[in-house]
Write a structure and sequence with these properties.
4 helices, mainly alpha, 97 residues, 4 strands
Length: 97
């Protein structure tokens, strides 16, 4: 076999292997691509909301998402719906007082 045919075959094998790797990353729920930096993440990644919609890697979660959440904590508390227990407590408090 000539060196040219061998190198073509090796190149096709490498391309197939790379395509299979990206298929695994993109189609496996445990692996994906970070919506912030674009790098692959493993083990399900992290919820990037409210910084961005999607999933992110551990590095971007630590660098961007968590600080963003901490800065906007009071806004989230105001937007969160009351739990059933809180609603019942407030109703009982209103009836009593």
């Amino acid at each position: 076999m000539t060196a040219m045919k061998q190198s073509r075959r090796e190149r096709r094998q490498a391309e197939r292997m790379l395509n299979n790797m990206w298929d695994l990353v993109l189609n496996n729920p445990k692996h994906g691509v970070c919506c912030i930096c674009g790098k692959p993440y493993h083990n399900h990644g992290n919820n990037a909301r409210p910084f961005m919609n999607g999933r992110c890697c551990n590095e971007c979660d630590s660098k961007y998402v968590i600080p963003y959440r901490l800065l906007h904590y009071e806004e989230y508390q105001a937007q969160m719906p009351l739990s059933e227990m809180e609603v019942n407590y407030n109703l009982e408090k209103a009836k009593a007082g």
